[in-house]
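Running this now, will post back.
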Amino acid sequence: MSIKFPIRLLVCTCGVLVAGNLFIFGTLDLNNNGKSEILLLGGLSNQLEYVELGDEGSHRLLWTYSPGGSGKIVDARFSDLNNDGTEELVVVLQSNNNNWLNVFEWNGQTFSSNPKSIMGGNGKAD
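Update: finished.
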C-alpha cells in the first residue's frame, strides 16, 4: 500500500468534517441569464448564500443572509407565495425572539436585503 491512499483518506475525512451540515438547494436560474444558481445553507457558518455557477467551476456570490443575534437558520425553501410567477425564499429560524419565519422577495437579480418577518405567538406579519 502506498502512502498516497492514507493521505487521500485523511484529506477526504477532513473535508467532510469541515463542511459540517452543508445543504445545497438547486439548481435554479432565477435571473434568467442561462447560468445555474444554487442556494447554500450551513457549513461552517450560520448563513445562506445564493451563488451563480460559472464555467469551469467558478462561482459568483449573488446574495447572502445571516440572522442577527442568537438566531439559527433551520431550513430554507423556494415557493411562489403570492402567485405572481416569481419564487420567494422562505427561511425558517430557531430564535429566542418571536421572529421565526422570514420571506425574501426576488427582484429579478437578487433577493431583498430586508425580509418580511412572520411573528410567532400572535401570528401577525411584521
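Confidence is low (pLDDT under 50) at residues 1-19. More later if anyone needs it.
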